[in-house]
Amino acid sequence: MSKRDELITKYAADLKEKCGVNADMDLLTKVTIGCGPSIYNKDAATVSGSDESELATVKNNFLIKKLGLSDGANLDDGINAVMEKYGKSNRNKYRAVVYYLLTKHFGKESVY
Q1: Which of 42, 44, 74, 87 has its CA 20 to 30 A from that of 3?
Q2: Bridge-partner residues for 18, per DSSP?
Q3: DSSP the chain
Q4: Are the beta carbons of 43 and 93 closer than 8 angstroms?
């Protein structure tokens, strides 16, 4: 099993345990691949739910550039909803899981 496959399995378990979501493995795999090499870097692989600059990066680089959404309050609401679902107290929020949940939240599975 490759390192990426191990991470995808870990992300699916995280979705199930912390969010109560049964992952669409095909979509989760595509989202994980879309994250590129960041998933292998301990710092870049996670998203800080309390760091405003990090959340702004998620909004600009993922929601606007990758998913093609237009900027607005609904994007912040979506990010907040995903952070709430993942658990604000949960320290390790994996980037691929956050992106997967955002993709589902905004119904943008077709991008992948």
Answers
A1: 87
A2: none
A3: --HHHHHHHHHHHHIIIII-----HHHHHHHHHHTGGGGGSTTTTB--TT-HHHHHHIIIIIIIIIS-PPPSHHHHHHHHHHHHHH-TT-S--BHHHHHHHHHHHTT-GGG-
A4: no
Tell me what percent of the chain is helix, strand and coil, each rounded to the nearest 5.
65, 0, 30
CATH class of the domain whose range is 3-111: mainly alpha
Residue 85 tokens read as: 């679902």
**Token digits for 56?**
């702004």
Q: pLDDT of 5-56, one tens digit each?
A: 999 999 999 999 999 999 999 999 999 999 999 999 999 999 988 889 999 9
**Beta bridge partner(s), residue 94:** 46
Alpha carbon distance 46, 39 (integer Å) = 8
Beta bridge partners of 46: 94
